Amino acid sequence: MGAPTWASWMIAVLAIFIGLPLAWASTPLGTRGATDLLLKAYRRDGLEYVEQQYLSKLTPYKAGLQLFNLALALDHAGDQDDALVVYRHAAAYGSPPAMANLAYWLSRHGEEDEAQEWYRRAAEAGYRRVVPGAGER
Asked: Which pTM does this prediction carry?
């Protein structure tokens, strides 16, 4: 089941006090809350601000996952152009799901060569839901 909601929030508060700015994202309610926080900050101040203010203390892998969640939120909100920019940043941080989503988007828009490169990188990074045959030439 997981920890009760009050315990999740207590963990988040303690994590913030010891300097882990997005640590509450590991709590059950935290993933959505962290993504909402990043989405609001992105819309208000831009991607560079989000990376500096919220992601700079995370490992590149964790920052990539946070950016991937932000890109998904933008994509679901209908902001495909912004989602593409954020998918690119998340992929650059090494997020395999971002690499796969970026490749899918590029493929849908006729950029097959670049799409195949990102599918290959996603597979090499351990992503297992890559389109069969991607990266083969």
From this structure: 0.69
